[in-house]
Amino acid sequence: MNKYNKLLTIILFVIVSIMVISMINVDNAHDTRDRNGNYNPFSDGTSSITLSKNSVSITPGSSTTDSYTVELSSGTTWGTSLSSNSLSGFTIGFSNSGGDPPYTGTMTISIASTVSDGTYHVFINATGDDPSSSPAVLSVSVTGHASSTTPPPVTPSKSFTALYGTDIAGSSVIILFLLAAIVPMVLRRKNLAAMGYLSFIVSMGSALFLITDDSLLRSSGYLHWLLLLVFTAGMIVSMLGYLLTKDKLKETARMGLAYGSIFMSIAMILDAALGLPLSSISNVGGSIGFNYLFGFGINAPSTLAVSLAFSILLIFNGLLFSSFFRSKSSVSSKKTN
């Protein structure tokens, strides 16, 4: 076993240890009323949130209300606390923000006068010992200004960044992924192993971050979260097989690394294009897939950290695929000769 194999084996054991510790921490979270406010699949129960209206219209500078009901879906009744995503210019208030389900209340949505016309989505989550398995989604249509005796001022349209920022960011990341898949094709063969190992470490680091820290992925896209978990475990097993075996088993592991990374990349791009089809927020409208994966905090429900992790995972998966695919072809050519 050469020095690269020894080093990467150590790193793999560290990654697996981090994953196990993270899963244990999630498991223990149900005893602390979910201190981080994230969805915890090991909680005492789950709750559901029902809104009386799924969409409302409002003018800038005014407010509206919607009633809600929080009910226990499974498990035992403990406690929940309501929260919503943060939107610029929006103030969300709850008349009854927590308690033991079932309970009801009224949500007040206040809009600043500076909010531009358009459709916004408010995600309401229940956190605590009985977290909601998926958020309730309220579509808020902001149109015009409050009537007055004077002519209304001209309302600026949404900024270029708000309208096209996520599409540009997502397209740029996909282009970088394609370029990353080409780079190893022009590298010297002796550099392929180092490039493949580096890409693997960075990709797995991003995947582990998303598995342990992306609460929206766990709560609203649980199948996506499970697929990411299976992908990560499979890639780690493949890398261990590549490092510790020889001949046909080594080639099989190499193929698993190459094709596993490219299949995951294709799945991520399809998720963005199709609007997260396996999630509970797939039908909220707009470019929800690109907003979530590549929004970088420009539009809800994206965050800078999550979008950066998805982008790094996609780009370095391209490097990982090309490195091991070309290395595989190189080994096959040598055997033929």
Automatic annotation (TrEMBL):
Keywords: Membrane, Transmembrane, Transmembrane helix. The keyword Nucleotidyltransferase does not apply. It comes from the Archaea. The chain crosses the membrane at residues 7-26, 168-187, 194-211, 223-244, 256-278, 298-325. This is Multipass membrane protein. It comes from Cuniculiplasma divulgatum.
